[in-house]
TrEMBL record:
Protein name according to UniProt: PLP-dependent aminotransferase family protein
Sample GO molecular function, one term: pyridoxal phosphate binding
This protein's UniProt keywords: Aminotransferase, DNA-binding, Pyridoxal phosphate, Transcription, Transcription regulation, Transferase
Domain HTH gntR-type: 14-82
Gene3D superfamilies (alphabetical): Aspartate Aminotransferase, domain 1, Type I PLP-dependent aspartate aminotransferase-like (Major domain), Winged helix-like DNA-binding domain superfamily/Winged helix DNA-binding domain
Family, similarity comment: In the C-terminal section; belongs to the class-I pyridoxal-phosphate-dependent aminotransferase family.
SUPFAM superfamilies, per database record: PLP-dependent transferases, Winged helix' DNA-binding domain
Organism, as annotated: Neptunomonas concharum
InterPro entries with a match to the protein in the record: Aminotransferase_I/II_large (IPR004839), HTH_trans_reg/aminotransferase (IPR051446), PyrdxlP-dep_Trfase (IPR015424), PyrdxlP-dep_Trfase_major (IPR015421), PyrdxlP-dep_Trfase_small (IPR015422), Tscrpt_reg_HTH_GntR (IPR000524), WH-like_DNA-bd_sf (IPR036388), WH_DNA-bd_sf (IPR036390)
């Protein structure tokens, strides 16, 4: 007898049809359900779950409304080839007209466009350089660019070598290159239970399995690593120790030491995502400085300068640098030379530091606004972070709250979008306070969010 997909709906609260849609979403993200896979016939699934056919019908309809599935007349219901599978579903969306989009953690506008215009004018006066920038470059970048980048990344006792630094097209590609240089299809990696969604997209594309790690206010619970290594034999662990996305937690010094020791015991490689760390008011020594032979260190220009300046920095363990270069050649040959030149000019001319200081000032302003307007709710925010992690009152579920907020023409992100594999996402939302057009727009949005959070949701409970 052929076994059909039969989710455990007892894991979910609320109406059964919504629980079914949630189960479809979770199993897509964890890889249990694949693109173009056909879901069970409604009557057969209803029998397997012990619910009515109407419940399954409504569940499939809800999943289709969320863009998870396609219903084909006379054929059945299928997991979409794209949609929930694409990074855009939980990172970048087309903002409807009149909406305030607080889903993307981008730098505050501090006049980057004017700086870019001046830089392009400078380059216009250097035709020979422009001609070189239009040609092919070494895959890791020119040595003088890598040296500028290495100096930009250095602080305290962390001085990365330019010889182990690869310039790439943003932090997302840096993660991809690290994974490609280490993993084969079918391999396993560890990550915090809620993590940067781009990691899930890459893992799915590279056919990798992610095992979630629990966490608390000090970051990931590192004591579980040894047991997970014995059980799953992971190749590496992905973490965001300084400015965790989306919870704003920071890995304590004790946990950092524990993580490094666990990695040494288990010969476990680490991807240290420090893209937002450059904004941190207080920075601990990176894992890459503590364990340079086992840590891939990642940073980029997206948070300190501009999201569209697609320049990433990947500092590799020496033994993996050549593999990273090969992965870069295989994917795009090289980082975009013009982008790299602009970023390095901004660093060398001091503009990057000025932008960084302006960002810190603006973020502190917005933190104080959020701290004041969200008072009375449970949330985790920092004066040096792009977002607020709002834990919802007991009467709200995150996905329902996001939809309710959308009725006010405001867009935020539910914790479910960050949940890894089968990790039970908390009932929380991420609000990117940096994304608002200005402080007034942010204030109006936060007031609306607070009002909704304190109100009772419209109950659309099913009796099926």
């Amino acid at each position: 007898m052929v076994t059909i997909w039969t989710p455990d709906l007892s894991r979910y609260q609320g109406a059964r049809y919504k629980a079914l849609a949630e189960a479809i979403s979770n199993d897509i993200l964890s890889g249990v359900l694949s693109p173009d896979e056909k879901l069970p016939p409604q009557r057969r699934l209803a029998d397997a779950l012990g619910v009515t056919v109407g419940t399954v019908t409504r569940g499939y309809a809800e999943a289709e409304r969320r863009g998870l599935v396609n219903a084909k007349v006379g054929s059945g219901t299928y997991i979409r080839s794209s949609g929930a599978q694409s990074m855009g579903d939980y990172l970048i969306t087309d903002k409807p007209c009149g909406f305030t989009d607080l889903t993307v953690s981008l730098p505050v506008d501090v006049g980057q466009h004017s700086l870019l215009a001046n830089t392009l004018q400078e380059l216009h006066q250097q035709p020979e350089l422009l001609s070189r920038l239009l040609g092919y470059h070494p895959e890791g970048g020119f040595s003088h660019h890598r040296e500028i980048a290495a100096q930009w990344l250095s602080y305290d006792d962390f001085t990365p070598s330019a010889d182990c630094l690869t310039l790439c097209n943003g932090g997302q590609q840096a993660i991809q290159l690290a994974l490609m240089s280490v993993c084969q299809p079918g391999d396993t990696l560890l990550a915090e239970g809620v993590a940067y969604p781009g990691l899930k997209v890459l893992a799915r594309q590279l056919k990798l399995k992610i095992i979630p790690l629990s966490f608390d206010s000090e970051g990931m619970l590192t004591e579980s690593i040894d047991g997970l290594c014995r059980q799953y034999s992971p190749r590496l662990i992905y973490c965001t120790p300084t400015q965790h996305n989306p919870t704003n937690t920071r890995l304590s010094k004790a946990r950092r030491e524990s993580l490094v020791q666990a990695a040494q015991r288990n010969q476990l490689l680490i991807i240290e995502d420090e893209v937002s760390a450059v904004l941190a008011q207080q920075r601990d020594l990176p894992l890459a400085a503590m364990l340079p032979d086992q840590v891939f260190y990642i940073s980029s220009c997206s948070k300190s300068m501009a999201g569209g300046l697609r320049v990433g920095f990947l500092v590799s363990p020496p033994a993996y640098h050549c593999k990273v270069s090969a992965a870069l050649r295989a994917s795009c040959w090289m980082a975009a030379p013009l982008m790299v030149e602009i970023a390095c000019r901004w660093i060398k001319q001091g503009h990057a530091d000025k932008l960084l200081n302006q960002q810190k000032k603006k973020l502190r302003e917005r933190f104080l606004i959020a701290k004041t307007l969200l008072a009375g709710l449970e949330f985790h925010a920092r004066a040096d972070s792009f977002f607020v992690w709002l834990s919802l009152p007991d009467h709200w579920r995150a996905l329902d709250f996001v939809r309710a907020v959308e009725t006010q023409k405001i867009m935020i992100t539910a914790a479910e979008s960050f949940a890894v594999a089968n990790y039970a996402a908390p009932q929380a939302v991420r609000i990117c306070i940096s994304a608002a057009e200005n402080n007034e727009v942010l204030s109006k949005a936060l007031l609306a969010i607070k009002t909704l959070a304190l109100s009772t949701p419209d109950t659309e409970l099913s009796l099926f």
